[in-house]
Amino acid sequence: MTENFSVTAICVKSIDYKENDKLLTLCSAERGKLTALARGAKKAAAKLKYAAQPFTFGEYTLTGKGRYIIDCKQIESFSSILNSLDSYYSGCCVLEILMKTCAEDTPSPELVVGAAKALSRLSGGDNPHETLKDYMLFTLAESGYKFDFNICAACGALIDKEAYFSASEGVLCPHCKGLFPKKIPSDALFVLKGGSGAGDVMLKGANIFLSELLNELIGIKINSLNFYGELTV
Ligand SMILES: [Zn+2]
């Protein structure tokens, strides 16, 4: 008989399965992404009801072969994320990005801790757009893409109000932009240079630009970002 095992994980997805069950996608520190069934979790009084809620961060115990969840000790529910629509949608983006970066059978403690920190900020009332921006920068850095938006990657000149982006080189000044330049929108550049006092519209602009980088550099398309509505390209 295979022994049961426990993982520290965030529930990133929960779908109805059969009459009373939920099929969960968990991103765990110890084993990366896995799916498992929470039997009876749809019933109001179910022991695993809260374990089956997206955003739940907990210690999940699974059966030996990992097909069923038999227990969950909640570490944090992050339930305050549901108090504001912007926090909720930003939280959905965090879960989606985590789900798409966390690989199966791959210990992923940094990714899980990074996402838990972002969810904790959202739950604590931090600006949802700023939190999402920081989380996307974290995800890029974890994937090996750490950019300095204040210095041209080619010549070292300080970046002022105009900059370009190249997948192979990074952030470039107007003199080094090359033949097919992708201009960094000025709002996004202001935010990513660390400018203070940016409002939500500027932060959203930065997030859309970062979501394009996630798509271009690591192949992640964030569907949850559609909540930005007409701003989303
Ligand atoms: Zn330059």
Secondary structure layout:
Blueprint: E1 5-17, E2 21-28, E3 32-38, E4 57-62, E5 69-76, H1 85-101, H2 109-123, H3 128-142, E6 164-166, E7 170-172, E8 182-183, H4 186-192, H5 200-218
Antiparallel strand pairs: 1-2, 1-4, 2-3, 4-5, 6-7, 6-8
The structure holds zinc ion.
Plain-language structure description:
The protein has 233 residues and is α+β, with helices and mostly antiparallel strands. It has 2 domains: 5-77, OB fold (Dihydrolipoamide Acetyltransferase, E2P), CATH 2.40.50; 80-149 and 184-231, no CATH class. The protein has 5 helices and 8 strands, in the order E-E-E-E-E-H-H-H-E-E-E-H-H. It has a 5-stranded antiparallel beta sheet with strand order 3-2-1-4-5. A 3-stranded antiparallel beta sheet has the order 7-6-8, with no helix packed on it. The longest helix has 19 residues, at 200-218. The N and C termini lie far apart (52 Å). The model has no long low-confidence stretch (mean pLDDT 94). Zinc ion (ZN) is lined by residues 152, 154-155, 157, 172-173, 175-176. Zinc ion is lined by residues 152, 154-155, 157, 172-173, 175-176.
